[in-house]
Amino acid sequence: MGNDEKRFNELIAGMRRSSKTKPLATPRPIQTQKTPCSSWNEVGIGFQLKSVKPFIPAESVDAPILCQKKEVELVAAVVGLLKANPIVLGPDGVAVHLDVPDRDPEKSEHEANECRTIEFRAKHLCGGHEYHFDIRRAQYAGCIVETLRSPAIIAEGNDRHFYLRRYKDRTLHVVISSLPVGGESSVVGVAYEKNSDLVTQYPNIPALTSGNARRWNPENAQVIYKNESI
Predict the structure, then answer these.
(1) Which end of the chain is less packed: N or C, by CB atoms within 10 Å?
(2) Distance CA 56, CA 12 (A)
(3) What crossing angle do the helices spanning 71-84 and 118-127 adopt, rounded to 10°?
């Protein structure tokens, strides 16, 4: 092999070596948003409710659910509860009015309806915004007073206050009120969470992101009060 041919072969070999792809660096794991807490002790004011809700501890208090089974009896029991407890003072100093008349839930909000009663408010609490009666929701309406008096968490968002308390049976009960004005607000609705499914004032449909439904979603609300004694 002549010198020229030898130099040519060395040149080609050098070009092949330099053209080899460098080994790829080990890919970094995708950074996801971390939950701001991992236990009840770490829950703090300003945290998003959706992050802290799983850590709300179950208390040793039995849920004071209503024992009635029939719709008419449950509605009457809720009426009695609202009238017997017209105003409940929460630990945040807000006086929540329960004896608030409501429209006929079987009629549209846009429909002319000046007749508002406590009975209609009770039906609302037993059946949701459009009155789809739910026996479990109606029974857990019995927890309204105790949840307001001793909530584990109070959160604020979407012009609503959310009072949450987890009872001995591990059910997370939620009372929804209007945004306080002058230290007073009015009950708007109730919800409960059983087996990780939040039962709201609206039918259980996937999309609750538009119109009035958005106002009821507590997920993005922020904690404004934490009960440090539990």
Answers:
(1) N
(2) 70
(3) 120
**E strand or H helix that includes residue 52:** helix 49-52
CA separation for the pair 125, 139 (Å, rounded)? 10
> Are the C-beta atoms of residues 148 and 90 closer than 8 Å to each other?
yes
CB atoms within 10 A of CB 227: 16
What DSSP element (H or E) covers 223?
A: strand 222-226
Beta bridge partners of residue 197, listed in sequence order: 194
> What are the tokens at 222?
């922020």
pTM to 2 decimals? Answer: 0.76
The helix/strand/coil state of 75 is helix
DSSP 151-209: -SEEEEETTEEEEEEE-TT--EEEEEEEPPBTTEEEEEEEEEEETTEEE-SS---S---
Which residue type occupies 153? I
For 140-192, write each residue's pLDDT tens digit: 999 999 999 999 999 999 899 999 999 999 999 999 999 999 999 999 999 98
d(CA 165, CA 91): 13
